[in-house]
TrEMBL record:
Belongs to the class-V pyridoxal-phosphate-dependent aminotransferase family. SerC subfamily. Pyridoxal 5'-phosphate binds at residues 75-76, 101, 152, 174, 197, 239-240. Pathway: Amino-acid biosynthesis; L-serine biosynthesis; L-serine from 3-phospho-D-glycerate: step 2/3; Cofactor biosynthesis; pyridoxine 5'-phosphate biosynthesis; pyridoxine 5'-phosphate from D-erythrose 4-phosphate: step 3/5. One of its GO terms (cellular component) is cytoplasm. One of its GO terms (biological process) is pyridoxine biosynthetic process. This is Phosphoserine aminotransferase. Its EC number is 2.6.1.52. It is an enzyme of class 2 (transferase). It comes from Actinomyces radicidentis. SUPFAM superfamilies: PLP-dependent transferases. Keywords: Amino-acid biosynthesis, Aminotransferase, Cytoplasm, Pyridoxal phosphate, Pyridoxine biosynthesis, Serine biosynthesis, Transferase.
Amino acid sequence: MRVHNFSAGPAQLPLPVLEQAASEFTDWRSSGMSVLEVSHRGKDFVECAADAEATLRRLAGVPDSYKVLFLQGGATGQFAAIPQNLTQRGDSFAAILTGQWSKKAVKESERQGVTGTIVSDQAESGYATTPAEGSFEVPADAKYLYYCANETIGGVAMPFVPTAEAGDVPIVADVSSMYLSRPIDVEKFGVVYGGAQKNLGPAGLDVTIVREDLLGSARPDTPSIWDWKVMADKDSMLNTPPTFSIYLFGLILHWIEDQGGLEAMGRRNDAKAARLYDAVDASSFYTNPVEKRSRSAMNVPFTLADPELDKDFLAGAEAAGLKNLKGHRSVGGMRASIYNAMTDDGITALIEYMAEFERTRA
């Protein structure tokens, strides 16, 4: 029986994609082999990877002046790769801190011998807010401005792209937990990257989009698999790529197209999130801690009026087929991750369960 999986990642995948993958799992493209078994150098897989890139470019409007890289190590790997490709030791970068992932990215970047200038830190609110437009300045000598577009743990999303604040400084955005959940103007960024295990497929794949003029400046000691120029020149196949993740990524891209593309996906995601936030806001039993302008449409945290009821809430949810609602260990409470694959039925089931639990336990 399929359940409603609210996990933050690895996350629920579209059922039609899973069914297609299952149907061709042991005999892909009439090869008599699974996609897990074919060579990444073979004609079939090269075509598969090329189709995934072409579909991504079509869906997200990725210009020809950007390279698409299929990498390993997830977004965390890019925390180190970004300064290795964009800075030399002793350089500085700018960063916006809106939660735990942006803090981790800055910490890892500073391990690479660069200095992070924090232009906005939302610690005072407990990372329940984002900066206002025009409230910070980016130093002109910063090699890049980094921010996390959607903080998975805290359910905080940046409501704007800080192009005016950045000026000529390239913007680098971690979009892991909102990747392809809505339209994106790639040309506003120098680098867009994220792990696949939210909206794009299984864990193991990072998709990085890099403006071409930012290639070719990696430090001499940068490992080849982290050197964007080397990987671009090798079509992301310097080493054996995560073939199964790329294959599923391609299927998901075509599924998104079948749903009407990113504009339709964005409208659907906003409607799902609005229903859940409305249910929380209408209740005196549940609370969302994030300021409304900064609420994520992908990750919805909420707390119960009495934390002593958390275990009972989670046990009842599990019994009702509502899985993985426990909040991150660092913040507690509940968190519903409602990525592209989460259905309207899943949202309805959660809202109905929340209402019944409140009725019987408030």
